Every structure is written in structure tokens, then in C-alpha cells.
Amino acid sequence: MVKNVFLRRMACAVLLLTLLPIAGGGPATGQSPGSSAPPAGETVKATWTQIPGRAKDLSINAAAMAYAVGDDGVALRWRAVSQKWSRMSGAFVRITAAEGNRPWGVTEDGNVMRFNGLWWEPKGDKVADVAGDAVGNIYIARISGMVEKWEPLSQSWKPVPGQLARRIALDIRGKPWIVTPKGQIMRWEDGAWIGLPGIARDIALGADGSAVIVDGNGQLRKLRMSPVRWVPYEGVTDVAAAGLTPNGGPWVALGDGRIFATVLIRDQVPLTEEENKDKAETPHAPVPQAPLAQAQPVIAPKITASNVQATTNTATESTAPDAKADAPTAQSIGTSGSGSGTGNKSNSNSNSVSPGGGGGTSDPAASTTNEKLEFVDTRGTAQQIAIGRDGSVFALDTSGGITRWSNTRGAFESFPGQLARIAVDSQGNPWGVTSVGRVFRHDGTAWVQVQGVTASDISIGGKDDIVLFANADGILSRLDMATGKTSNVPGLGVQVAAGPDGTPWTISKDHIAQRCGKSPCTPLFQLARSIAVGPDGTVFLVNTNDLLMRKRPSDKKFSQVLVPGHTPAAVAVGPNGFPWVVTSARKVLATRYFERNEAGDRVLAQKSSGNTTGSGTTAAVVSSQSASAFTFTKNLKFDKYKSSDAEASMGMLSDVHAGHTGAVYISGDTGVFKFNTKTKKFEALDKAFSNSSLADVGEDESGTLWALSEIAPARVYRLKGTQEKTYYVINSTDTNTPRNMAVAADGTVYVAVGAQLYKMEAGKSVFKQIESSDIFFVHLGAGGDLWILNQSSEVQQYTGSKFENRPKGTAQKAQDLGVGADGSVYVLDHSTSLLKKWNASNGRFDDVNITQAMHAVTVTIEGRPWIVNTSGDITSSGDIWRAKD
After folding, report:
1. For the chain, which has fewer Cβ within 10 Å, the N-terminal or C-terminal residue?
2. Pairing mode, if any, of strands 401-406 and 768-771?
């Protein structure tokens, strides 16, 4: 197994926890009757050092950031350099360190708040406890005992069923552990609560996998295994709250508020905006694991709340070892022998690979790191990513817009073009496949079409840029750079990753991962959604259980790499075997920022010419297997909801709409309503559109809402926060009927009016006509993939020069059409009103085995269809259907 201490460290740093008496009365023993009690005399020896201040709650995260609630309720933050607490705004009874310098707290009246760098934002009420980790996971325990998880995209809380909780903490994978109202200890695993022995009043978990509780008598106990038991610490009693440093060293607050530690935190972390508004925040990287704090062989005198006077002495190095926390910036690595970056270079201790045909010169990108992989939230989002051997990182958003990572600016920046698949060559230039299968490469100046070549997927490997393709049928081919022609190579797969020697590593239509150096391919005994190979030959994949797996060149098999607090969806690999991943929430996580010269990046993006439209032959592009955990089956099952429920209380349901944040909306006679994933109800918007008579609704990646008027003249409304702006599609006197609208991730808007198609580019204010006839409905998929229903209700796809029937020849007729950001296309048959799905591999629409006639369909960014019945005849049983996993 891969020992990934950083990942364990990064995911968990929760500590929340002041003391409440256990419901029901009498003192607990700290061990349940059925548990294994520690052997007589077994204890944990430790040296305790008092640190300044008094507290009634403590929290330390995986980045060694410590917070506390002072005895007066004020939020405190530990200053490592000065070895003292600094006061923050706000008054709380619970606090948790979380992602970056953004703690969460619970007020005395039960409101849960998040610090945004300047002030505390309310996020909910009726809360008893909150727990966070360094990668963004947040859970609460309600006053009622209900456990709920924060969903940042929908800004709502999702219930975690099965148990009630009074205290909560998160483990190394971002999974909750709880103390129930009766003091029982439970952990969440595979959708169920698993009981542990013991009775507790408080619980804390460390990023190294350690766990402690405060038992019913105020005794601090540490979890030990084989058998499972809670072993008491020596030296402290009357513990009220506990926290653990990244390496598992406990801090405690006693009943009288004094704070004691076994491990000190001595490294400075950046100021928040509240304390230094002139300093821009840089992307945060969880820090390397703190040195192991060994228990000293000398037993410290027992400390109790009553027999020691409170002091303000500063802890000294001689009494407690340090918990080291490096500056919170991701390390960078050089990909050439020289470089000016200041980040730490990778420690690539394995064999160096010589470039092909060279005279033995070491290839810096091709040596495999032996470092522990440490994931960092880049704070960027994407649907796909690709990394070149020079360290260039490119990404695609949910509409296929291209972005490029900048180390200097710590962000993804726009790059011209639109693609459905992307790869990067050894010079850092992007290549890609469009939504209609055309292949393009960027030559450092402009986009150039690779004439006569089509594909569904692309990958580039080796120092000499070996370009591999996979088509929708799974046939593999290789591009001859000299002739511009392709030739088939052994193997099959609809996803392909090129090894450094050009060997194809693929995923089949059935999700089977395989190595295709010869025919037949060699199975890897993994079912996968995404696969990538680095310049060093390290293979990463995301399997169908949503686990990130790695096989280095020296490894015989795959082993898991933890991505704490996140669900991997796609992976790319850069120099020295360092991966980046896209999560199911479309967050981009990195293990290294690759050092490279970025001086010309912005100029290139601004001056780049050409486009990615192209001409000539087209080809099917299969929907992405890595876009989500949602898996299509012809025997789809559906959850059902009612438009007649409050708050919507619709008498007439009109349509259903999916947004680029993952949100789903319905519209009807009472307005627009958003699906609440927690309550499973459609609820009113915080700010309603001024016009309630709407033909369509859309949402871009920023969460901005767009709507199209139902009657002429065609007007588009943009609702950003509480501000609404109106755009006339044609003019204020036009009489053409508004049909529908499609919104891209970046805010580009397409509108069908009469039989014409109009487009307003992101950031612009004027619509321009792009098609003059035969348009009825318009829909937008990955890579700018335009689909329409024409005036004869025929399904067509835009090829870059014309709209072409789908299937080719005799088109499918439909009453509605839905296209997802993953490439999924669904229709409702024109005559039967039954659901069908586009099969790019065979160029046909497949039946979905449901018998209920429906009237409108939408597809979420993860490829999940929602369908609605607008006739009113199934409202009482549920007229809004959501496909189940």
C-alpha cells in the first residue's frame, strides 16, 4: 500500500468540542460494557506544557492552523511566531478550523457561521456543533441531533441519515465520526454508521489517523487497536475539549479554561484579509506532516483544574517538541535542469530515464518521485485537465472553454478555442478534439486543424510527441507527424493515454482498464472512469468506485492514493509522476505546481489566431466516462417530486432546467423554483425575476441566472445576486416568438427566436444572428456542441458549417431535447413522448425503458436526466422525475 501521510494529514483537522453533560445523568466510565478495556495499568505517557490563554473549545486542522473559543466566547487564532492567541471578531461556543484561513463557528443561539476573511457569514441555524477539514468538507450536528453536510454548490445542507449526534469530527477521508446524545461513538462508512466501544463527551481526530475522546469523567483517552480500546493519557484530568495536531499530538482545554499541549505549533501562517487587507491570498497548500511527537519517558506531574494556578508562561522548546508547519504554498518542481522558481524541487530518487535516441542525458521529467503525494485545492474548476511534459496545465470547463494554469497568478486563465477533449504536447502547446470529432493543434501562434483526421479522444506521450487517438468505436490510431496521416495500432478503447514509449493505455466501453502494447490488450484488473500516464511512466486511474489508483514503473500492481475529502472524477499526470485531479464537484486539485517560464502565456492567449471550428469530415464523440459517478442504464429508475408542493404550488408546470453549478430549476405559472437537495423540494429563489411569464431559464458557472421572456419582443433577463438586467435579443418592437435559450458556462447565451438563432458572447451586451432559418429549439453541450430541433422537430447537430441530421439520413423527431456538459444527449420522442438517449458509438438513439409519457427533459452537468410531465395528469403522484444513480 502507498503510505500517504500528507493526504491523511490534509483531510482532517477537526475539533469541536466543548463539554456538555451526557443526557440521562450519571457519570460515564469511558468504556462501554461490551468493549475491550485497556489492560490494567496501560496508559499513554506524555509531557504537558501549558500555553497562554484560556479556552472552552479548540480546533487544529491538517495545515497546523489552530483556533479556539476563549472563555469569554471570543474566537481566537494561534499565532505560531509569537506563541500566543490573537482575537478575531465574533463570539461562539464551538469553532472548527477549515479550508485555508476560513474557520466556522457556532454561536450561543445556534447559528453556524463561516469566516470569509473579512466577516462571519451565516450558513444555517439550530446548530449544536460544526466540524471542518483542510480540504473544504463541513458537517454540522443540529440541536435536534441531525447530522448534515454542507453542499457548497447549492449553498445548502444535505442530511446524513441514521444517527443523532451531539459532537462531530472528520477523519482522514473527510468522513464524520460522532458522539451521540447518549455518549456512544459512531463513524460513517459506506453509507452506514459503525459503532465503536466507549462512552464520550467529546471527540477529536488527527490527520495521521489518530483519535482521542474525552470520556464521561473528563479523562482524555487515545484510540488503540487490536483490540479496539481507549487508553487514558497520564498527566491531565477534568478535560473539557481536545484537539490534535497534524501528527496526533493532543491539545486540551481543562474545565477551568487552561490550555495544555504535548506538541507545539511554531510556524507562521499568512494573515487573513481582516488582519492585513493589502496582502492578496495565495492558493493554500496543506503542509507536510509534522515531526512525530514521541511521548517522553518521564511522567509529568498530574494537572487538574483545581490544584494548579493559571499562568501565562510561554511554552518552551525544552518541554514539548514542535509540530512543524511549512508555509502554506504548494511546492513547485523544475522540469528542466535549471529554473528560477523558489519552490522546493521534487525529490526524484528513482531511476532516471534517458531520452530516446540520446546519448545518456538524463530526462528530468521522466524520473519518478518517491515523495508522498500532497493534494492542494487550486481553487479552480474544470471538467477535464491535461498536463504536458514541460509542466503546462490546460483545462476545459463544462462548456469546453479552454483555460491555462498560471503559477504566477495562482489561477486558471482563459485561452482561445473550444474543445471536447484536450491534450498537451512536449512544448506546452494544446491539442484537442472538438465536439464533432475534428482534431486541432496549437502551433504556438494559432489553432491549426489536422486535416482529414477525426477522433473521440486524444493523448500525447513521449519526448517526441507520440499522438494517439481513439474513435467512438474504440479503434486506436497513431498520427505520423511527417505525413499528417494516421495508422491503426493494436488495442481497443474509447479513452486513451499515451505512455512515454507510445504504448496505449486505454479504457474500454465497459470501463475495463488495459495496456495495449500488443493485441489483445492486457487487462489491468481495474474498472475505470479516467486514465493517465506521466512522462515517467507512472499510470494513474480513477476507478468506478471513485478511488484514485497509482502504478509506478517499479510497481507490480495498483495501490490507492487518498484524496481526502474529495471524490476523484478525472486525473492527469505531469512531470515526475505528480498527478492533478478533477473532483466530482469539478474542483481541481494539484500535487505540484510545475516550474516553467510563463512570461509569454498571456500574450499568446491574446494574440492567438484561428479557431477550433474547422471543416470537412466529422465523427462521433462519446460522452465522457469521467464526468461523474452517474452511470446510464437503459433501465433507469427515477425519484419523483411534485410541482404542486409548497413552495412552488404550481397549477401549471412548464419546464425543467439544469444549470452549470449542478443546480436544477423548474418554471411554471408561479415562477421559477430551485431544487433543494436537503429538503428534496423546489423552493423559491432569493430574488425572483421581474417577469414571471418565461419561456426558458438557464444558469452559468458563476451561479448567475438567465431567463427568456415567453412573449415578443424576445428579452433575456440576467439575475446576478439581486440585480436584474434586461437584453433585447432583436429589438423592442420585434414580433417573432421567443422559443428557448442555451447558456454556456462562461455566460455566453444562445436564443432561438422565431426560426432564427442568436448569440451573445460572454461579457457582451448585444445579440448577433448566427443562423437565419429553420431553428426551433437550441441546446448546448461539451466543447460548444450545438444541437437543435428544427422547424420540423428533427434533431440536428452543428458540424461547424451546417446542422446535420441525427441520426444521419432520417433524423429522430422529438418534442424536446436535453444536452449535458458530459456530452450526454436525451430526447423525448415526438410521437410517443418516451425518453431516448443518443448513442454516439452507433449513431442511433437508444430507448430508455420507461412507459410514462413525459413532455420536457434537461440534463445536468454530470449527465443525469430530469424529465417532467406538463399535462397535469400525474401531478399528484409526482410530475418531476430525476434519474437515480
Report:
1. N
2. unpaired
190: exposed, middle or buried (C-beta count within 10 Å: 0-12, 13-18, 19+)?
exposed
Q: Which residues, 6 or more positions from 212, have their beta carbon under 8 angstroms from its beta carbon? A: 203, 204, 206, 220, 221, 222, 223, 233, 242, 244, 250
Domain 638-883 has what CATH class?
mainly beta
CATH 3.30.160.100 fits 369-607, yes or no: no
Give residue 64's pLDDT. 85
Domain with CATH 2.120.10.30 in the chain: 5-319, 369-607, 638-883
Can you read off the three cell numbers belonging to residue 786?
450545438
- With b for 16 or more beta-carbon neighbours within 10 A and e for fewer, the 129-160 pattern comes to bbbbbbbbbbbbbbeeebbbbbbebbebbeeb
Measured CA to CA, the distance from residue 243 to residue 222 in angstroms comes to: 12
Whether omega before 288 lies within 30 degrees of 0, making that bond cis, reads: no
Dihedral over alpha carbons 731, 733, 738, 742 (to 10 degrees):
10
Cβ(356)–Cβ(342) below 8 Å: no
CB 208 within 8 A of CB 249: no
Task: Please determine, for residue 290, whether its predicted confidence score (pLDDT) is greater than 90.
Answer: no
CA neighbor of 783 nearest in space, from 827, 743, 822: 822
Q: Which residue has the cell 496543506?
A: 286
What secondary structure does DSSP assign to 361-400, as a single string?
Answer: ---GGGSPP-SPP--EEEEEE-SEEEE-TT--EEEE-TT-
Closest CA to 379 of 350, 408, 411, 415: 411
Amino acid 632: pLDDT: 67
What is the C-alpha to C-alpha distance for residues 143 and 129, in angstroms, rounded to an integer? 8
DSSP classification of residue 360: S
Which CATH number is 5-319 given? 2.120.10.30
CA distance 139 to 158: 9
Instruction: Kindly give, in sequence order, each residue whose CB lies less than 8 Å from that of residue 610, ignoring residues fewer than 6 positions away.
Output: 446, 447, 448
Label residue 702 exposed, middle or buried (CB < 10 Å: 0-12, 13-18, 19+).
exposed
- The pTM of this model reads 0.53
Q: Among residues 874, 872, 792, 864, which one has the least CA distance to residue 835?
A: 864
Cβ atoms of residues 140 and 127 within 8 Å: yes
Res. 361: pLDDT tops 60: no
469 forms beta bridges with: 458, 477
In a 3-state reduction of DSSP, which class is residue 8?
helix
Alpha carbon distance 22, 15 (integer Å): 18
Rounded distance between C-alpha atoms, residue 196 and residue 224, angstroms? 12
Q: Please report the pLDDT score of residue 819 as a whole number.
A: 95
The DSSP bridge partners found for residue 707 are 697, 717
What is the CB-side half-sphere exposure of residue 715 using CA atoms within 13 A?
18
- Helical segments of 557-655, H only: 601-607
Collapsing DSSP states into helix, strand and coil, what is residue 435? Answer: coil
Provide the residue type at 593 as one letter. Answer: Y
Q: Cβ(621)–Cβ(611) under 8 Å?
A: no
| Torsion angles phi and psi, residue 847, rounded to 5 | -70, 145
Q: Helices (H) and strands (E) in the chain — how many of each?
A: 2, 74
Q: In the predicted model, what is the mean pLDDT of residues 354-383?
A: 74
Mean pLDDT, to the nearest integer, of 120-137?
91
Give the CA dihedral 669, 670, 671, 673, nearest 10 degrees: -120
d(CA 855, CA 840): 24
Label residue 851 exposed, middle or buried (CB < 10 Å: 0-12, 13-18, 19+). exposed
- Where do the H-state alpha helices sit in 82-202? none
Residue 685 · residue 673 · CB < 8 Å: yes
